[in-house]
Each structure stands twice: as C-alpha cells, then as structure tokens.
C-alpha cells in the first residue's frame, strides 16, 4: 500500500517520514516544492507519478495571528488546497485523510466538543480550516477528517520548543491560564494516521469526521509547567519561574477560544484508537532541545 503525504517539512509530515521505516506501507512524504496543494497540476503530477492508494493532507497555514492580516493566503492553503486534493482524489478514486483543528469551535461550550457540535471559529485560521473541512466532506465520500489540537513535536516550531528556548533566557515567563485544550504529539498523530491507513487497507474504513488529541486536558500555563517540571527532573533545571496570566494580559491579533477540549470517544469506538498521554512524548523533545545546556 502506498501512502502519499503532503507537507513533509511540517510536524506531522516529518513524524510520518520517521515512521516510514517501521511500517509495511510505502510512505512517500513530499515537501511543498514537489507537491503544492494550491496547484491542481502539482497534485495531479504527484499522484500520476507515485500512484498512491491513500493521500494524507498534513499541509496547513498555521500562523494563527498572521492569518488575520494574510487572509487570502490562509484560505488558499486551508480551504482551496483541500478542495483541490478532494477533487483530484475523487477523479482517481482514492481516499483522503485530512488533518484539521480544534479552532473550528468557539470555545464557549462547557463540555468537551463532539463531532456533531456546532462550529463557530473566532479567527481566520479557524474559519479557513473549517472551510477546508466542509469542501472535503462535500466533494469526496471516502474521506477521514481528523481534528486535533495543540500539536507539538521534535521537528518544526511549537509551544514546547518555544517554552524551552525562552526558559533559557528569562527568569520569569507569564503563560495564559484561562485557555483550555489538549496537547497532542505529532508522533501520536502519525501513529494514528498509520492506524487509519491499516483500516482502509483491510476494508474496515468508516469514513467521516473524527476528533483525536492527547490527554489530560490542561491550560497553556499547565502545559508550560509540565514542560519545565519534566526538564528539571531530567537534570535540565532552567531556573525560570512560570506564572499564570489571563488572556486579557496577553492580547493577540487573533482571538483564541476559551476551551477546545475534544471528545475522542467516536474514534475509540470506530477504530479502537485511544487518547495518548501527551506527557509521555515530552522527554525526547526536552532531551534534544536542552542537550548541551546542562
């Protein structure tokens, strides 16, 4: 089985590339220079050359604040790109696994969000990603949309790396403590995608929309505290004091939802995929980032 993955340079794409040697599937991860999802001709050329059995879209415009002033670019990648992929997949008769986000929700709901709950994005990033979800579902029957949240990994820019970098240079960090969500390791997302591909390969696919994220739920402050506590236990005591602040204390161009905790029971029931403990994946990132700083 051949699996073609977009955005080889991104967090999930890189994690899938690393998994390629450990699976019986042939995983081909292409960077944007080789497969540009905003260009139909680029998609068609890659599919014609590789002839994949499944296409995984890990490409996205993820600069949440920049998207507010760069709306055309955000919609081009997050809505038009998935539309191009879905139409091409429909034409050649292959399924699409598309990665989406918790930011499609308003964050006002007290309980975790299920796949059937109403969406209501607060920013351009969330709105453009929701647009992508809708066009994929409308165009292609054989699709899996995987909404996830607060992605971090060993490759690329993410919250864990930012905290460790700032912690080396500052005595104190104020981190938001009134936004709630679920950190999710890119490596766990990659494992889940492989599991979904296995289900497709064996004829057990259940198409549609699914939520998948790490557990337990926390805040950005709780996430940061766990990062520095774990670093200290590994011998990397950065000596930084982390204090909780409110969203009002740290204004940003894009409005963030208060709580985007995802209910992941559907993917558990349909695919027997469990929510991982996000803290398990921290050690490798901390070791890589802090080595030599001891």
Give a verbal description of the structure.
- The chain is of the alpha/beta class and 294 residues long.
- It has a domain at 2-157 and 183-214 and 261-277: Rossmann fold.
- The protein has helices spanning 11-19, 40-50, 71-92, 124-139, 159-169, 186-201, 220-233, 265-271, 282-290, and strands at residues 2-5, 26-29, 54-57, 96-101, 143-148, 151-152, 172-176, 180-181, 184-185, 208-211, 218-219, 241-245.
- Strand 3, helix 3 and strand 4 (96-101) form a beta-alpha-beta unit.
- Helix 3 runs parallel beside helix 4 and helix 5 (159-169) runs parallel beside helix 9 (282-290).
- The radius of gyration is 19 Å and the shape is globular.
- The model has no long low-confidence stretch (mean pLDDT 95).
Summarize the structure.
The chain has 294 residues and is of the alpha/beta class. It has helices at 11-19, 40-50, 71-92, 124-139, 159-169, 186-201, 220-233, 265-271, 282-290, and strands at 2-5, 26-29, 54-57, 96-101, 143-148, 151-152, 172-176, 180-181, 184-185, 208-211, 218-219, 241-245.
Which descriptors would you attach to this protein?
single chain, 294 residues, alpha/beta, Rossmann fold, 6-stranded parallel sheet, 9 helices, 12 strands, 39% helix, globular
The top level CATH class name of the domain at 2-157 and 183-214 and 261-277? Alpha Beta
The residue ranges in which pLDDT falls below 50 over 5 or more consecutive positions are none
| Average predicted confidence as pLDDT | 95
Query: What is the name of the CATH superfamily of the domain at 2-157 and 183-214 and 261-277?
Result: NAD(P)-binding Rossmann-like Domain
Radius of gyration: 19 Å
Strand order of the largest sheet: 2-1-3-4-5-10
Order of helices and strands: EHEHEHEHEEHEEEHEEHEHH
Instruction: Count every beta strand, where a strand is a DSSP E run of 2 or more residues.
Output: 12
Structural class: alpha/beta
Distance between the termini: 44 Å
CATH topology call of the domain at 2-157 and 183-214 and 261-277? Rossmann fold
